[in-house]
């Protein structure tokens, strides 16, 4: 008997480079090997996959950084409009009057703009579609990654002038031009929608791109990439857009003529640059990176029933968990599986934790630097903090934390960061803002104290945020059920993003509505007389810190409990049920064949006797 082995795997597309430069195997024949870690004999060499994931997450961080700079532009624009209105009505244009009149309006406007990030909190609604619909020859994740990133780049290039016009900026717009917050919010909402779709594809790709042994390092790539993208767009734009730093640093450095009224790069120009960068990077990924072939689950089960299953099994570390193909089970069944995940008690408790723990820290996360700029901190100084403090810590903290908490429950890292985040970080924030309220430092000692507080406050917030984010993403990567694929990871990330999105708009709204501007009356001689206003920041900070301590007391035990749950608590076992059903059907089919064969044999034997 001859055993025929048939290769039923779908063909893998070859890149242009591989058509001209095929790799050679040991026998000298040309062969193609994807960078995806699908071969356990590759010793889990994922260097190129790490680099690609970091690059993709960097592209994801670019719109985030740009959107983080918009609140400062809104604040400055409203302040300019308020100063112009004050000068027109009272004949006096003072910085104090402009600040107090514009504070409430700027926070209310930024509360609206904060809604632009909601697609990251709603992406679960279309995540199963991204999992189910794709072009097999092009690649399951690339089918979405390439067009979405390309469209995002085109949107940034083509919509750059629109954003400037909505913000009342640009060379042909007067300083008194009105600002349309809803228009710029709609633009960034669309951009976030595209990046949320990209995030679904990248998260799902990371589960199959990296070897199973290295899959836990995917969140580190996420953290590093998003920090790089955020730095590139947020810091790069604020530093190059600030007229003061452009005139003092960048123009002399580049040998450009003086122009103290404008920055080196406008918002529209920077959007175009980032858009072209995204298009070029996406083109490179489309041409030179291949995915591992998507093996239908049914085919794999058929192969597992052959005599090859009698061969010695590989090491468990090298056996990859296969992902259910959403294109085979259908969208309805995919949503059903996600609903089954939501019914797990462990997931329900995790949702409650993710949706509540960011509220006590929302003031420091979203308002602190806006309040610091309101008190006199320059935007260029704010931008300087990212490359010097936030970016290095965002890269180093996940690496150091993985060494410190290696082999320990991730809840220890998470809760350590949270305890510092609701106690030490708010204390340093209040100290920083109190120092800024007293005015700019005039002596050397005052400057040393001010910069020490500023750097320490920024560093502590960056460290604790990175500790929690890294612990959270690593926990997701270890607990996600690979049988549900990227949709499971998207479900958890959606809850995490929603937990940070809704408090942002809430605290902006609270600060805006609780701020009471001084009532100023003009005097015949001298400056106007103003009554004391109300700044709610410090009172709200005290209340939110107390709420954070209460959260630790109430929910801290649940965090430790779910962190120690076994993997079985996070599994739906839908795949196991299907396997049992298929085995039962196969058993019944085998019985039918055996009984039929036995009957035919018996009938043939009787016929022979009759003859």
What can you tell me about this protein's structure?
Residues 1-35 are annotated as: Disordered. One of its GO terms (biological process) is acetyl-CoA transmembrane transport. The chain crosses the membrane at residues 47-74, 144-163, 183-208, 220-240, 260-288, 384-406, 448-469, 490-511, 537-554. One of its GO terms (molecular function) is acetyl-CoA transmembrane transporter activity. The protein has a single domain (58-295, 326-517, 531-586), classed as MFS general substrate transporter like domains (Growth Hormone, Chain: A, Up-down Bundle), CATH 1.20.1250. The chain has 23 helices and four strands. The protein has helices at 16-20, 47-90, 95-113, 119-122, 127-132, 142-158, 160-166, 181-209, 218-241, 243-254, 267-288, 297-304, 326-342, 345-356, 362-366, 368-374, 379-404, 410-422, 424-437, 444-479, 486-514, 537-563, 574-610, and strands spanning 23-24, 30-31, 520-521, 529-530. The protein has a two-stranded antiparallel ribbon. Strands 3-4 form a two-stranded antiparallel sheet. Strand 1 and strand 2 (30-31) form a beta hairpin. The longest helix is centred in the N-terminal third of the chain and has 44 residues, at 47-90. It is globular. It starts with 15 loop residues before the first helix and ends with a helix.
């Amino acid at each position: 008997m001859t055993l025929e082995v048939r290769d039923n795997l779908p063909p893998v597309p070859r890149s242009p480079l591989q058509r001209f430069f095929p790799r050679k195997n040991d026998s000298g024949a040309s062969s193609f090997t994807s960078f995806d870690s699908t071969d356990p004999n590759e010793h889990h060499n994922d260097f190129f996959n790490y680099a690609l994931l970091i690059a993709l997450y960097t592209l994801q961080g670019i719109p985030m950084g740009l959107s983080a700079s918009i609140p400062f532009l809104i604040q400055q624009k409203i302040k300019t409009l308020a100063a112009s209105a004050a000068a027109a009505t009272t004949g006096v244009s003072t910085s104090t009057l402009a600040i107090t009149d514009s504070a409430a309006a700027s926070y209310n406007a930024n509360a609206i703009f904060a809604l632009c990030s909601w697609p990251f909190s709603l992406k679960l609604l279309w995540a199963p579609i991204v999992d189910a619909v794709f072009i097999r020859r092009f690649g399951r994740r690339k089918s979405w990654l390439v067009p979405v990133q390309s469209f995002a780049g085109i949107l940034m290039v083509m919509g750059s002038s629109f954003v400037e016009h909505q913000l009342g900026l640009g060379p042909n717009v007067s300083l008194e031009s009105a600002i349309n917050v809803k228009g710029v919010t709609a633009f960034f909402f669309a951009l976030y929608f595209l990046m949320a779709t990209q995030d679904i594809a990248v998260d799902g790709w990371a589960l199959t791109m990296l070897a199973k042994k290295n899959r836990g390092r995917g969140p580190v790539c996420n953290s590093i990439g998003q920090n790089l993208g955020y730095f590139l767009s947020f810091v790069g734009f604020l530093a190059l857009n600030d007229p003061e730093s452009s005139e003092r640093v960048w123009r002399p450095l580049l040998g450009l003529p003086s122009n103290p009224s404008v920055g080196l790069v406008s918002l529209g120009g920077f959007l175009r640059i980032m858009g072209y960068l995204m298009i070029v990077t996406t083109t490179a990924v489309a041409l030179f990176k291949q995915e591992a072939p998507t093996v239908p689950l049914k085919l794999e089960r058929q192969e597992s029933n052959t005599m090859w299953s009698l061969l010695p099994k590989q090491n468990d570390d090298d056996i990859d968990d296969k992902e259910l193909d959403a294109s085979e089970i259908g969208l309805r069944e995919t949503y059903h599986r996600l609903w089954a995940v939501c019914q797990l008690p462990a997931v329900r408790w995790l949702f409650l934790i993710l949706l509540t723990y960011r509220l006590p820290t929302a003031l420091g996360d979203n308002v602190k630097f806006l309040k610091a700029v309101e008190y006199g901190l320059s935007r260029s100084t704010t931008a300087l903090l990212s490359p010097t403090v936030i970016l290095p810590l965002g890269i180093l903290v996940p690496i150091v934390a993985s060494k410190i908490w290696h082999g320990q429950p991730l809840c220890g890292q998470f809760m350590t960061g949270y305890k510092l985040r609701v106690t030490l970080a708010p204390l340093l924030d209040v100290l920083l803002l109190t120092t800024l309220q007293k005015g700019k430092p005039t002596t050397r000692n005052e400057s040393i104290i001010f910069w020490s507080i500023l750097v320490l406050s920024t560093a502590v917030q960056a460290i604790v945020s990175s500790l929690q984010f890294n612990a959270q993403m690593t926990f997701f990567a270890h607990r996600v059920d690979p049988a549900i694929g990227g949709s499971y990871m998207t479900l958890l990330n959606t809850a995490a993003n929603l937990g940070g999105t809704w408090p942002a708009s809430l605290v902006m709204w609270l600060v805006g509505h609780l701020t009471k501007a001084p009532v100023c009356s003009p005097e015949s001689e001298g400056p106007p007389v103003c009554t004391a206003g109300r700044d709610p920041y410090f009172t709200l900070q005290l209340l939110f810190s107390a709420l954070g301590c209460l959260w630790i007391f109430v929910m801290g035990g649940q965090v430790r409990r779910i962190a120690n749950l076994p993997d079985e608590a996070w599994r739906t076992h839908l795949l196991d049920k299907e396997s049992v059903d298929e085995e039962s059907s196969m058993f019944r089919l085998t019985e039918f064949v055996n009984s039929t064969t036995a009957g035919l044999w018996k009938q043939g034997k009787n016929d022979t006797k009759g003859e």
